[in-house]
Amino acid sequence: EIVLTQSPGILSLSPGEGATLSCRASQSVSSGFLAWYQQKPGQAPRLLIYGVFSRATGIPDRFSGSGSGTDFTLTISRLEPEDFAVYYCQQYGSSPRTFGQGTKVEIK
Amino acid sequence: QVQLQESGPGLVKPSETLSLTCTVSGVSISSSYWSWIRQSPGKGLEWIGNVFHSGSTNYNPSLKSRVTISADTSKNQFSLELTSVTAADTAVYYCTRAKGGGWFDPWGQGTLVTVSS
Q1: Is the pLDDT of residue B101 over 80?
Q2: How far, in Å, CA of A6 to CA of B48, rounded?
Q3: Does the CA dihedral A69-A75-B48-A5 come out positive or negative?
Q4: Which residue of A36, A41, A52, A95 lies most exposed, with the fewest beta carbons within 10 A?
Q5: Short-list B69, B17, B39, CA closest to B9
């Protein structure tokens, strides 16, 4: 199975700053089948990005995805108060589907 | 608007079978693949498996010997059975729609299942 490793584990930033989250795969993710999710305490994960860079419905354009092969990035251009949460990457290029362990974006 | 809602016991005894149902509204389950995912502090997010309305399934090999996922188109529901549970199966269980080959959207609110005697 493909193991996804996210870094950093915790990102401490202030509102208005930019955030760069990394997701590295143990082997190439075929056809760019990579998604990103946001999860807030007590809530289910919410889809942000699919197909590496396609934003899900209703997701603001301050969220963007990039990457290929084994290295992927989620960028949040300017952090809003509601963006402080845990972010997960997920690959669907092979079975079983797998998730990264998450990056927590916290208020500095 | 597509909505999913999990239901089932919140407490299951060790060695027994965990059974959950997901009720889908806003869309026919005949339109997509449907999945179960669980989340525990120790293992993070773990994909359990998925089902198509035809009954076709795909399971995580780590759970395959204990898992059955089925669909009931007449009730617009799909279900999860996990046999021989242990404390390691304690988690929040989510049902979700698998789109475009395998990203998940939307998700149910999740239900906590605790395995304890």
Answers
A1: no
A2: 21
A3: positive
A4: A41
A5: B17
